[in-house]
Design the sequence.
């Protein structure tokens, strides 16, 4: 690689860094995002099956299924509400009927699915203050023989 | 035998033609410009796309999301205009290599995530072997450009040509100074 090319590469990378930081500073994104947005990633608590099961039997929880309608109808945790991530905006009416301080446990198919985390973030932005993510999801719940609806 | 030789010559002519270089540059540059602009609209969503690969810390993800979109935009524009052709091709090909490795890593670990390549919609562009093939295709375009000499067809050369034409129209004809004794 010639010296000229190295200089050009450094120039392009350097410009990207400078413009990138300026842009995020002006638009309040990235490192300059307001604290509420910056902490959104850290608010979510991920729980394992025992905690999800305990919450279920305590009765003071709403399970939210992030999968699409078809998968939900094939089988879901008993009493869960389906709020498909890809169709989130259509379910605003359903969400408005849920108290903002009730414990919500969000799940999707299993550990390979990130939709539960994405949906939990959206719920957090809507004002729900008590959200947990059951990462083991439908697969782990079903395998454990816990209450389901099919 | 002569036919195959002439076919080879024809292919070589097409491959080495400056117009071919220009077309490939515009294609690759345009793709990266589009990808970069898509990421700029939602930097925080792009941050989450990077975090979804479960490799990087949050600070690294935020730093990457701050810099990479602008790197893509600048290199895309450079490539289209023909400025810093080789440098921008090296950067673009390098980025593609990294993205492809990340997708392969995610596939090996069974992550059900979106690529985050062109859109930050979490349900669009889910990673798969098609994405790997797509990236390999782009890498081939980059390698092609790197194996060819820099094309003279650039944005600046358009202006150079115009200047030359303007100068030739305005310069008065030279006078012959014959020395006489």
Sequence:
């Amino acid at each position: 690689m010639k010296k000229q090319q190295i200089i050009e590469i450094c120039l392009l990378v350097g410009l990207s860094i400078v413009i990138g930081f300026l842009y995020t500073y002006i638009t309040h994104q990235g490192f300059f995002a307001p604290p509420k947005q910056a902490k959104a990633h850290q608010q979510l608590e991920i729980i394992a099956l025992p905690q999800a099961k305990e919450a279920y039997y305590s009765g003071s929880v709403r399970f939210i299924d992030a999968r699409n309608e078809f998968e939900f109808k094939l089988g879901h945790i008993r009493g869960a509400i389906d709020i498909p991530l890809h169709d989130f905006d259509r379910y605003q009416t359903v969400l408005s009927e849920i108290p903002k301080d009730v414990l919500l446990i969000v799940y999707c198919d299993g550990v390979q699915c990130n939709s539960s985390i994405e949906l939990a973030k959206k719920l957090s932005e809507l004002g729900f203050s008590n959200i947990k993510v059951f990462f083991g999801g439908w697969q782990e719940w079903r395998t454990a023989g816990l209450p389901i609806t099919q | 035998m002569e036919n195959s030789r002439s076919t080879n010559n024809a292919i070589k002519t097409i491959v080495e033609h400056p117009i071919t270089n220009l077309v490939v540059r515009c294609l690759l540059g345009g793709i990266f410009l589009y990808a970069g602009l898509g990421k700029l609209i939602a930097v925080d969503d792009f941050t989450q796309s990077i975090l979804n690969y479960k490799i990087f810390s949050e600070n690294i993800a935020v730093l990457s999301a701050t810099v990479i979109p602008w790197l893509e935009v600048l290199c895309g524009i450079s490539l289209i205009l023909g400025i810093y052709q080789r440098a921008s091709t090296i950067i673009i090909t390098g980025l593609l290599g990294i993205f492809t490795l990340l997708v392969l890593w995610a596939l090996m670990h069974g992550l059900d995530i979106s690529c985050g390549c062109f859109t930050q919609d979490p349900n669009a562009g889910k990673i798969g072997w098609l994405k790997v093939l797509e990236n390999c295709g782009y890498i081939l375009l980059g390698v092609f450009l790197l194996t060819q000499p820099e094309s003279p067809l650039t944005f600046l050369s358009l202006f150079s040509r115009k200047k030359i034409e303007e100068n030739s129209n305005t310069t008065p004809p030279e006078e012959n100074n014959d020395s006489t004794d």
